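Run log // design_07
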């Protein structure tokens, strides 16, 4: 293993003067050879510094890391989440046929039963057969945070053209502003509240849920009758007063950030309907089938993972940007931040030893073209390269606005071309000379207009953003994260790093209410004191 990392590092070191543009000259079929499809999804990774030698080494790295064996173990229901002793089976939520054994038990009948109950409930809400105490449900408020918010919120925005159910709203932050701004203007008599929490103990969600219940109680006789619970802790949902007929459970082998495919996706199902939601699942299942069957060298999740490893662990680029040229994917970067950084932001390997290389990178992004007018300056001319992952649909949904879509696509392609090609000092000098500059001032002005280029990017091309293709994209990224985690030798499915802050928040709360502050550090005590002083009426 060490040897392959060393060989990859040497391969990169030998590329010192390499220009991506030269690779296209030396490998005439590169544009096609470094472009890989899964069904009708196309992943272009040609505009990177991965040449044939690097590609072969990266594939060897995947082989030596036993990616295929780990993948098969995951799909088979083995307990690959070793620090929590759990199977990892979010894939079972989107492959509703067949059987999967966990501890010798087939888990699929229960998964199918829950899906059928969700579909039945969603249909009744959408048709008006299930009503609020003031009539047909007009609004749905999903209260959840992290994986119980980011997935359904992202997917509901992405599928706006398919949205023909009640309006959906998402409350996540414990900041009272979030729920206050959301509930203002809603009619409690026709609002359905979903409490989405795998554990049903998350303090933000339970605080917001109680606030929503009080709000509902001020207007209807039976507030709990307009509440739904989505949780693995079905025993706790009854204590909140939610009838078991409106509780949709899932097992501990569904990680929070992988949970949009099951009950946590109920708000999406209410918005777009059970059929479109099933298409979303089918898209995820299609990517699963590809991931399981395609050889490593034409396996999209594997290749996306290997570009990630190349850029972060080998080239040392600290971040990567996800840049969907699709406004409806505006929450995808936030969704991917949890998926990638909570999964692979870890410093200890599965066996408890220190990780031998960098953990996963910082992931960030915004939809194009908006980002172009904000942070692309740094991407083009900053001192640290940022590998960019562009996503583009061939068709939009607004047929009458096709000219917008062509302009959007032109910008996406232009950005990856500009990043790769850059603009030389000579070209910049020519431009400035044409504007009348000369001498030292010509040089000075020209240098500001140089683009170093040679900046890597990949492009994921999809036919159109539909429930099916959204399912493909999300499953692609899930498996990418899994493959990167396997290669790094860490457990992508736990999240111990979120615990300490939660524990301390419980201890800091009394401090803010005037407790002595013993056990807290001087800075925290000082800030708490300033906070209290500022709260005094002036
Ligand atoms: O669904 P819940 O149990 O309420 O958890 C919500 C979120 O909170 C936790 O802190 C984890 O970091 C997330 O992985 C999880 O998605």
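design_07 sequence
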């Amino acid at each position: 293993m060490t040897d392959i990392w060393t060989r990859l590092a040497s391969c990169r070191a030998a590329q010192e003067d390499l220009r991506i543009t030269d690779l296209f000259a030396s490998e005439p079929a590169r544009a096609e050879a470094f472009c890989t499809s899964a069904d009708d999804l196309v992943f272009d990774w040609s505009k990177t510094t991965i040449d044939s030698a690097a590609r072969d080494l990266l594939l060897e790295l995947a082989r030596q890391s036993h990616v295929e064996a780990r993948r098969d173990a995951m799909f088979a229901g083995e307990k690959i989440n070793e620090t929590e002793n759990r199977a990892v089976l979010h894939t079972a939520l989107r492959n509703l046929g067949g059987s999967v054994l966990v501890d010798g038990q087939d888990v699929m009948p229960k998964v199918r039963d829950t899906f059928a109950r969700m579909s039945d409930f969603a249909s009744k809400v959408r048709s008006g057969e299930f009503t609020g105490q003031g009539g047909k449900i007009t609004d749905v408020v999903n209260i959840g945070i992290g994986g119980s918010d980011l997935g359904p919120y992202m997917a509901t925005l992405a599928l706006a053209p398919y949205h023909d159910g009640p309006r959906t709203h998402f409350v996540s932050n414990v900041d009272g502003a979030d729920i206050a701004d959301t509930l203002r203007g809603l009619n409690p008599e026709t609002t359905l509240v979903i409490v989405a929490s795998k554990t049903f103990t998350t303090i933000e969600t339970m605080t917001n849920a109680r606030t929503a219940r009080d709000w509902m109680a001020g207007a209807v006789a039976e507030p709990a009758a307009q509440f739904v619970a989505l949780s693995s802790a079905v025993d706790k949902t009854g204590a909140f007063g939610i009838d078991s007929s409106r509780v949709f459970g899932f097992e501990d082998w569904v990680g929070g950030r992988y949970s949009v495919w099951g009950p946590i996706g109920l708000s999406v199902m209410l918005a777009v309907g059970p059929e479109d939601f099933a298409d979303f699942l089918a898209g995820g299942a299609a990517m699963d089938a590809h991931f399981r069957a395609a050889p490593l060298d034409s396996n999209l999740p594997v290749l996306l993972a290997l570009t990630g490893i190349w850029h972060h662990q080998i080239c040392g680029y600290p971040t990567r940007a996800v840049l969907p040229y699709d406004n409806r994917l505006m929450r995808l970067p936030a969704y991917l931040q949890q998926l990638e950084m909570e999964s692979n932001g870890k410093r200890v390997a599965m066996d408890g030893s220190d990780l031998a290389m960098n953990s996963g990178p910082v992931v960030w992004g915004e939809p194009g073209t908006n980002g172009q007018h904000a942070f692309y300056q740094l991407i083009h001319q900053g001192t640290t390269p940022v590998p960019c992952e562009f996503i583009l649909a061939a068709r939009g949904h607004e047929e009458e606005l096709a000219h917008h879509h062509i302009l959007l696509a032109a910008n996406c392609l232009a950005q990856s071309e500009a990043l790769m090609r850059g603009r030389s000092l000579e070209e910049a000098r020519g431009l400035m000379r044409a504007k009348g500059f000369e001498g030292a001032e010509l040089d000075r002005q020209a240098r500001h207009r140089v683009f170093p280029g040679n900046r890597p990017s990949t492009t994921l091309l999809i036919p159109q953003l539909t429930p099916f293709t959204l399912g493909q994209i999300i499953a692609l990224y899930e498996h990418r994260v899994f493959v990167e985690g396997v290669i790094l030798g860490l457990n992508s499915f736990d999240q111990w790093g979120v615990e300490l802050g939660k524990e301390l928040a419980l201890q800091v709360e009394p401090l803010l209410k005037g407790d002595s502050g013993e056990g807290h550090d001087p800075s925290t005590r000082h800030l708490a004191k300033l906070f209290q002083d500022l709260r005094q009426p002036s």
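The mean pLDDT is 96.
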